[in-house]
């Protein structure tokens, strides 16, 4: 993740997830497994036209009229200008840790390799949101949301940077000048981790049910 800051805003950019790369060992009810997001899954999700929200720690909605999301040969890349004071303050204190995303699985398949390791491949997904984190995610997380008469499983994953992987750049230009610049993303060393965050979706379901 690269963070460029001035007095009025910050611009964050980097890879939310590297496709085709093994995660760390995750765990479910059946034990440990390794996961990959299949190449093309994010691109198809973005082409569907489903809105993707920008959030802070999966809870707080962030306004960013210039947010960009795309899948390239590396993975899902994001860039956004944020004017939220809480996030700017976290950036000033160098507390931002990386990206995370929330998704609903549309299609996946499982394999067991010769060592007996279970491997999950997420082939298609519904991308719900991407989040900027000020905490280091540590484990797999899920949430349940009602959709009509059904319940859907929302999963959260994060690409937390290795030490030194978050690059803070102080800028003196105005916000307008900052937004006009283009950042070319570079490949980043990342490890797949997860943050348990369910409160937002629980409250959202309650609000929706109350309407």
TrEMBL record:
The keyword Cytoplasm does not apply. Coiled coil: none annotated. Keywords: Hydrolase, Protease, Viral release from host cell. It holds the Pfam family Peptidase_S78. Signal peptide: none annotated. GO terms for biological process: proteolysis. Residues 3-147 form the Prohead serine protease domain. GO terms for molecular function: peptidase activity. This is HK97 family phage prohead protease. It comes from Candidatus Avoscillospira stercorigallinarum.
């Amino acid at each position: 993740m690269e963070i460029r800051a001035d007095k009025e805003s910050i611009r964050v950019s980097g890879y939310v997830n590297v496709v085709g790369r093994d995660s760390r060992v995750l765990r479910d009810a059946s034990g440990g497994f390794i996961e990959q997001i299949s190449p093309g899954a994010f691109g198809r999700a973005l082409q569907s036209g489903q809105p993707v929200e920008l959030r802070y720690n999966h809870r707080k909605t962030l306004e960013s009229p210039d947010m960009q999301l795309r899948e390239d040969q590396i993975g899902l890349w994001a860039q956004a200008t944020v004017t939220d004071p809480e996030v700017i303050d976290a950036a000033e204190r160098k507390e931002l840790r990386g990206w995370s995303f929330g998704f609903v699985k549309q299609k996946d398949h499982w394999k067991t390799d010769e060592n007996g390791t279970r491997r999950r491949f997420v082939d298609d997904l519904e991308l719900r949101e991407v989040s900027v984190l000020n905490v280091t995610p540590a484990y797999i997380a899920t949430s349940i949301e009602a959709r009509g008469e059904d319940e859907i499983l929302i999963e959260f994953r994060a690409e937390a940077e290795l030490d030194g992987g978050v690059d803070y750049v102080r800028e003196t230009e105005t916000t307008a000048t900052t937004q006009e610049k283009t950042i070319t993303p570079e490949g980043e060393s990342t490890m797949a981790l997860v943050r348990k965050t369910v409160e937002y979706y629980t409250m959202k379901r309650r609000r929706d049910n109350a309407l």
